[in-house]
Amino acid sequence: MKEKIFQLLKQEYKSLGLGDEVLQAHAEMLDKMGLVTDDNIETVVASQKDFLESLQKDNDRRVTDAKKKFEEAQKAKEDAERKAAEEEAKKKAEEEAKKAAEEAERKRLEELAKKNEMPDYLKKYFEEQAAEKKASEEARTKEREEFKKLVETLTQKNTDQAKTYNEQMETQSKTIKELQETIQKQAEEAKAKEEAAAKAKAKADHDAKILSKAKELGIPESRINEGFTLSDDATDEAIETYLSKVANNYKALQQPQFGGSYRASEGEPTKEDVDNVAASLVQSL
Q1: Which end of the chain is more exposed for a tag (fewer CB within 10 A), N or C?
Q2: Distance in angstroms (rounded) separating the CA atoms of residues 42 and 175
Q3: In terms of pTM, does the model score above 0.85?
């Protein structure tokens, strides 16, 4: 029956995208309740729609949120890396153009100096150019360090997002497992209660059957209250045979005298009287 329930659940709710593990656990829970039959299986499966849809919606929401955060972090990293690369390429091209112009100017001035003694303004110019070049190199080094830190920060952020995504997936798996355990526990408790109730009813029916038969055979209330040595699984035939012997013994006790052990004028016989008469009957056979 469990496999039938699972196959119907899988066929009916395949559009929800629930895994076989979840559907099998749900099918096992329904089967253990002992209420599903071939006649009502389709009705039972149809009644699970709201529960399974709510379970899938909650699952989809967690997955979608985690995936969205991961994709946003990945896009932010890629945009930052692309922008940084573009800025770096632009700065490098500008620096190379400036460096080429400065080199051409330097060579021109060197040629001029070879022909004439370098004037003070040219010396000052060269000093200023050297200072600018040094400052430019320091600024470029600083930018490279900042870019490196930016890449490291984005990489770490991406790692953290991936970790969060994995943790959410683990939490979801744990939630599904706890749900399966809860369903199984509820099914086991329901089955235990049902078995206890059935056992109690069977015992009550058995006792009622003995009482009814004893009264039918005319056994006095006092003897009935003393109880009978009958097992809970005694058959109807065994009950009738046993109670018939008890009734016959009492009928024998109603005679004016039986073996000198009891007289009718002495009142209602006791269990000991009945046992003595039974023994006398056996001995007389």
Answers
A1: C
A2: 28
A3: no
